[in-house]
Give the backbone structure.
Amino acid sequence: MRKWLLVMATVCTLTSTTGCLLPGYSADPARRSQQLIFTSENLRSMLDEWERIWFLDQPSHLTPISVHGGII
């Protein structure tokens, strides 16, 4: 019984991985390239969204020249 459960758990683990039995992208080269472009564009927009959330896309108000601030 224990061996049967171990075999079933192994089969379920191996068949549930993406890309082994079911391909992640289309077999047609034109469609596959379009899908890859869409995937990369989604990742790029995710980085832009992350920068917008943390206000990293705002212009810097710091001066490009280092200022002493004290009396010389």
Remarks:
- Residues 27 and 33 are 10 Å apart (CA to CA).
- The chain has a mean pLDDT of 77.
